[in-house]
Amino acid sequence: MSTNITGRFAPSPSGRMHLGNAFSYLLAWLSARSAGGRIVLRQEDLDPARCSLTYANQLESDLLWLGLDWDEGGSRGGLTYYQSHRSELYAHYLHQLETSGLIYPCFCTRGELHAPSAPHASDGTPVYAGTCRALSSAQRAEKAKLRRPSLRIRVPEREIAFTDGLQGLYTEHLSRDCGDFILRRSDGVYAYQLAVVVDDALMGVNQVVRGRDLLSSTPRQLWLQELLGFPHPDHYHVPLLCAGDGRRLSKRDGDLDLGTLQAEGVSPEAVLGRLAHWAGLIDRTEPVSLSELLADFDWKRVKREDVTVK
Ligand code: GLU
Predict the structure, then answer these.
(1) pLDDT at 64 > cutoff 80
(2) Is the shortest distance between the CB of 11 and ligand 1 below 6 Å?
(3) Beta-carbon-side half-sphere exposure of residue 304 (alpha carbons within 13 Å)
(4) Contact between residue 22 and residue 241 where contact means Cβ atoms under 8 Å apart
């Protein structure tokens, strides 16, 4: 079977892969491969302070250890599949948005942005109050002497709704729930929201499978796609794996990272069995192969709710 689905793995190489990451990649892989689709690997290493090539290479080995292969990108595709080497492309599309008059410099400090009185978006980030929206050119020039600005995009009073393949209908009001958001940080690093939209479009990605924590980013990304004339991919936001205290699994949970599991002698099939059971794809935790999972993969069987795993 062959379809035109192109999915992707988009890891941030800032640590060893943990089971939460592997859970999303497994579902992304099953979704694309069960439909005869392709997969692109893109290393989201925009933040030089957090990401490294060592982790990027390790992520590739961990994906392959699990049997999760891809067709294009990563180290096999060369530097163009590392976001840290794609700044010129982001600059190009940022410039396109600038010509529409929607971009403005923001001089607010972290402290100002995180004031306790600021309203918060559903992902916990403060909704920007619009402080620097209406500065005059003279005020901007004055402030620029003291501080390098970030660049924000002015969002409209508009509700964006979409149907997620797993979570169903999701709606956000851009100005009330998100606020004007950053496209380039004050240190010159391009923001995730811009990079992901540009890359998914240029890499031909039309199916995005990722953690539910990014559900609230999607309306912003759909709107950027619209502004830039890019197509909208389909989305599936998968449950998060959480620790007993309710917080989502992170790179801090070293006991559930693939390095520790491999050192303990756990087999790839045993890891796949745990992931597949949490996803709702098999009834019990028992070793399973990718080909068994592929044979009867169906999004209808995948759970929507987060899973407590430790
Ligand atoms: N790089 C992001 C992460 O690892 C994922 C971004 C995305 O899937 O859009 O959390």
Answers:
(1) yes
(2) yes
(3) 8
(4) no
